Amino acid sequence: MTALTLSTAGAATLRADALVVGVAKGAKGPVVAPGAEAVDKAFDGKLAAVLETLGASGAEGEVTKLPSPAGLKTPVVIAVGLGAAPAKDEAYAAETLRRAAGAAARTLAGAKKAAFALPIEATEDAEAIAEGALLGAYAFTAYQGGGKKDGGPKGPLAEVALLGAKPRDKAYKAAAERAIAVTEEINRARDLVNTPPNDLTPEAFAAVASAAAKEVGVKVQVLDEKALLKGGFGGILGVGQGSQNPPRLVKLTYTHAKDSKTLALVGKGITYDSGGISLKPAGHNETMKCDMAGAAAVFAAVIAAARLGLPVNVTGWLALAENMPSGSATRPGDVLRMYSGKTVEVLNTDAEGRLVLADALWKASEEKPDAIVNVATLTGAMMVALGNRTFGIMSNDDAFRTAVHETAEEVGEQSWPMPLPADLRKGMDSPTADIANMGERMGGGLVAGLFLKEFVGEGISWAHLDIAGPAFHEGAPYGYTPKGGTGSSVRTLVRLAERIGAGDLG
Ligand code: BES
Ligand code: MN
Ligand code: ZN
Q1: pLDDT at 429 over 60
Q2: Which fold has domain 3-165?
Q3: Residue 30: strand pairing partners
Q4: Residues with catalytic roles
Q5: Which of 54, 91, 206, 445 is close enough to 248 for a disulfide, judged by CB 3.0 to 4.6 Å?
Q6: DSSP, residue by residue, 211-264
Q7: Hey, which of 377, 379, 438 would you mutate to test ligand 1's pocket, going by the most ligand atoms within 8 Å of its Cβ?
């Protein structure tokens, strides 16, 4: 785990392995960003010129490494691109700083300590830089190095020292604490997503969640397969029955002593999605360990809310199952009786996420929370629609959907509002049951959303985040986003919980 400190030291006097500065794209070449004045001075005021000679332009994502001149206590200077310099009187966008800090932290894997001298004008900037650095420093190495202590892969950058944030100022301290709690939980969600499915079974996930919850005073209830049967959770059981690893429904309850508002979070936790009897073809199942990313995000958000003592109540529901084909698996054509009492004809066992979510959504609805948000790697169709970096937001309440979208924007997560067109419902009509788990192929992401909507209690504002695109990153790392699990939507959920607690939503 990477440590974060706020330092009052000047950029020229701090001892570290590297000093990170910002460089923006100016009209006539690279421009050194605020925060790096002392560094520029050590370069005789020629840092921008040196960077230009080295081919740097200040473009976003660009990383240039320079040996330090005499006068600095760090052997290396790392200049990260910030993109176009903001207009006079305008600050850098928080997400720009977050990504730049992340890119720098990534290149510093294996280093002990790096000082970040990026532009800070307000606590939000310090928080974004801290978040970016702590997220960029992430490395998943648990399965590498042959178990040897040395000679293994590089660990993450060990310490981030933030310059330009005021360590004795309460607001800056709070921003740092928030960044630490949120990023540690995001990184824990990433670990869960990256853990191979032979190790992360529903039972193992439930055990990790229980242990973490207990540490921060969050109440945990785990329904095992017997309890699920007794409770009538036909959706979760139907998905899990083909696997040797039985399903679980985990409830996490974070209660604030004074606040009366409650947000319920529901996560899809398919620890492996083979497709079941409607087996996925090769090429479509290699990354399906990521299919529990929604549950990981919900878990992370509840624990982060508890660690921060947010003035709101948050319940987290993790619907955990493994979707496998076997002689005991649900067949296409089977009818499941769901927890809500509705029957579902399973036409495609690969449309399993909506089945586990339906049970958890109905269960969550019984407590009449002020709002419900579910998070799921639900459909390939959402990736076709929005690409790999943007999650879709669907809702039964337009104002709530807008609020969720704005919240995501605020914390720097890409998302887009999607409709739930009523005409797509008839495609799920079943001759045998109340509804089928599949409908028209066109608009498949919205069809899935319409299915979920039927399992949300009357009068509750609900939003569905389809994170199938951004949950798992297969391309080259960028900014603070590593390969593999990303922790998508955790920052949105935490901020949303805060807003609901403060009563500034609908
Ligand atoms: N887990 C998948 C969706 C998915 C695909 C997530 C790719 C991440 C990357 C989901 O369970 C699924 O298989 N959905 C089907 C639904 C279809 C059978 C109606 C899909 O999208 O093809
Ligand atoms: Mn599936
Ligand atoms: Zn799935």
Answers
A1: yes
A2: Leucine Aminopeptidase, subunit E; domain 1 (3.40.220)
A3: 25
A4: 280, 354
A5: 206
A6: HHHHHTT-EEEEE-HHHHHHHT-HHHHHHHTTSSS--EEEEEEE--SS---EEE
A7: 379
Q: Which helix (H) or strand (E) holds 84?
A: strand 76-84
Query: Which one-letter amino acid corresponds to residue 151?
Result: G
Whether 36 shows a pLDDT value over 80: the answer reads: yes
Question: Is pLDDT above 80 for 196?
Answer: yes
Dist. CA 213 → ligand 3 center (Å): 26
418, 426 in Cβ contact below 8 A? no
45-63 as b/e: b if 16+ CB within 10 A: eebbebbbeeebbbebebb
Q: Write the DSSP string, 315-347.
A: EEEEEEEEE--STTSPPTT-EEE-TTS-EEE-S
Q: What average pLDDT does this structure show over 168-196?
A: 97
Distance 428 CA to ligand 2 centre (A): 17
pLDDT digits (tens, 9 = 90+) for 122-151: 999 999 999 999 999 999 999 998 755 666
Q: Where are the domains of the chain?
A: 3-165, 185-501
CATH of 185-501, one of 1.10.3080.10, 3.40.50.720, 3.30.70.260, 3.40.630.10: 3.40.630.10
Give 307-351 pLDDT, tens digit per residue: 999 999 999 999 999 999 999 999 999 999 999 999 999 999 999
Higher pLDDT, 153 or 374: 374
Average pLDDT over residues 15-32: 96
User: What is the pTM assigned to this prediction?
Assistant: 0.98
Query: Mean pLDDT score of the chain, rounded to an integer?
Result: 97
pLDDT band at 120 (very low <50, low <70, confident <90, very high): very high
Please state, as a whole number, how many other Cβ atoms lie within 10 Å of the Cβ of residue 174: 13
Across the beta sheet with 371-376, the strand order is 219-223, 248-254, 313-323, 262-273, 371-376, 461-466, 391-395, 415-417
For 53, how many CA atoms within 13 A lie in the half-sphere containing its CB? 6
Report the helix count and the strand count for the chain, using DSSP H and E: 14, 20
70-104 burial, b if ≥16 CB within 10 A, otherwise e?
Answer: eebbbebbbbbbbbebeeeeebbebbbbbbbbbbb
- CA 426 to centroid of ligand 2, rounded, Å: 21
Q: Is the CB of 239 under 6 A from ligand 1?
A: no
Q: Region 268-297: what's the mean pLDDT?
A: 98
HSE of 293, CA atoms in CB hemisphere, 13 A: 30
Neighbours of 503 (CB within 10 A): 12
